[in-house]
């Protein structure tokens, strides 16, 4: 049976997995779960409930008898299952740093974006201003990394995929990049023009537009 990836029209983590699979040339079936306008996924797809019964969230990857949830764990599986092209650096230390960057995108940067989801009605409030400031500081940190390299961990990697998608959602919620980080803006352009990235992100933006929701300026085709 063909590998299956369960995602959703506005799933950042699902898009991460889709991009990684496309970069590696995996022949997979993409299954989109039901979506409602309040950013929830109902009714829950039975395969999502079966594989991820506690969190009940996408992404889900099913590859024969391998059934996984969590985008980072799926990244690791794809790297083992399809080692070429590599999406982690070769060196042990470089790989460790890239893995840390991927985790920081999800666990350090993105929680600030999650806070903004509930503050869209009052972006001048102290919590919203603080969340945007935290995002800006993170952008500055990534800008520093790009002083000596083209991508965040050296070669293009899962770290770039993770942070690119996290930034797409940050921009949607009012914490986009500015001219203060020109290297990072250029990095965003390089990553965003990759065919695998466009194949995952362009349909997401079309879905947003069809729902009457704003599309980030840098993704308006």
UniProtKB/TrEMBL annotation:
InterPro entries: Glutathione-S-Trfase_C-like, Glutathione-S-Trfase_C_sf, Glutathione_S-Trfase, Glutathione_S-Trfase_N, Thioredoxin-like_sf. The lineage of its organism: Bacteria, Pseudomonadati, Pseudomonadota, Betaproteobacteria, Burkholderiales. It comes from the Bacteria. Keywords: Transferase. One of its GO terms (molecular function) is glutathione transferase activity. Its EC number is 2.5.1.18. This is Glutathione S-transferase. Residues 1-86 form the GST N-terminal domain. It is an enzyme of class 2 (transferase). It comes from Variovorax paradoxus. Residues 91-218 form the GST C-terminal domain.
